[in-house]
Amino acid sequence: MRKVVIAGAGMTRFTGKQPRTAIELFGDAATEAVNECDIKPKQVQALFLGNYLGDFEEGQAQPQSFAADYLGLAGIPANRYENACASASAAIRDAFIWVASGQYDIVLAGGTECATKMGTPLATRTFAMSSDSRYEYAAGVTFPGVFAMLAHLYSRRYNIPLETLKNQMYQVSINSHYYGARNSRAQFQKELTLEDARKSPTIASPLQLADCCPFTDGAAAVIIASEEAARKLTKKPVLIAGVGQASAGNLLSQKEFLPRIRSRELAAQQSYKMAGLGPKDIGVVELHDCFSIAALIALEGLGFFPYGTAGLAVEKGETKIGGKIALNLSGGLKAKGHPVGATGAAQAFEVVRQLRGECGERQVDGVKVGMTDTLGGDGGTLCNMILRRGW
Amino acid sequence: MEAKLTFKEYNENLKQGRLSGLKCSGCGEVSAQPRLICAKCGGSRLETLELKGSGAIQTFTVNYVAAEGRESEAPYIVLIVELDEGPWVMGNLAGIKPEQATMDIMGRKVQMESTAVFAGDKYSAGEIARPIFKLVS
User: Looking at chain A, which residue has its C-alpha nearest residue B100?
Assistant: First the structure.
């Protein structure tokens, strides 16, 4: 396998409702990524695009081909990835594999989503489509409902009183907003107070609005290139040192592992093994905090803290810059926003910028290795990437 | 390989108050969902069985924000029950007001008392049944 790098990265500002189409948003993100490494459209050999719900948002299936044409790439193979919230990460991982194999030298990968075009009732319905339509949705489970049930399970499994856990969960969201307030591309560039978190409405008990990521419009893109091809494209190639992906059946079928997410543990182990690294080597992590409880579960599943202790670690400040692991310095899904099919590429964008030292007041000094973690549905897909400086 | 239990059969049985499952002839693992291969041992010799519908609450939520078309159902309790035979199933809890559901119900014994049917919407493939449980202790 050849070494593969991210040669350029781009991302729109993430927002609430806005007028432009998913293809236009991807055009902006892809243009930024392309311009960073000054390649010409004809050098891009394939497009792998994450998009979860374009069919429902804009009545648009097969956006990848029209996106390729919009960008002047008509004729190249273009694939859409639908892995729920992990769509863009699955697209980037496949781009990595195709370039590593020698089939392509340069691939454009990323994702785009206009989730707010649906409005909350339809968005709630379509997000719930990642649960099992046969054995789960009939009972009325929603996406917040899944993680609400995991929160209760977590409280019981690790013997943490619910009120204690809820305070830890508020702190996860407060931290995300702290960094989101310092990210000019975040949807919510505003800090969250404990008082506001506490009085936010309950969505699915015990989760309140302050525990939940928003609906978001946005896109992100990366240029994936062989190390050799990238020499001509950038002085700061970011090496994709390890990738991992795993699947799982519906939530009910994961009974032996919950609240742990088995697919995460499989994917993370693949990533660490490929990179020859472990949790202690990771300087920044962008992980899947679709709900505050999901961040705690992810911090433990990736090996940063023992099971049942991540909330305490967050309270102690161990997930801030200067702590044990710098967590979601972009603001995470909570504050930066969660345009579902684009999220994994936006996580990669943040890690790339951190490794290059371009994150201003939320920069981790001298960070050399970062990780992404993207969860699709309730663990049906899990993708991890370990990125490191390639210069 | 022939499916011993299809979704259609499972759903029709549930509508009539019967919870069907599959038992692996190799390792004894029971599934409350139709599947081709045993999740535990990978065996393909699965036989149908009727589940008793009794078990214990593993987790739950009170859902206040329902999906499009189901707004009038909220608030409602969604719960996961571990059946006595082993598998987990998702359903609703009757007999207590949603606002009164706290973590105290976790671990308590329940029995399937009836079934309810999601009538389906323009995105789904028709009616889908789910179990309704009641507390028995």
Answer: A205
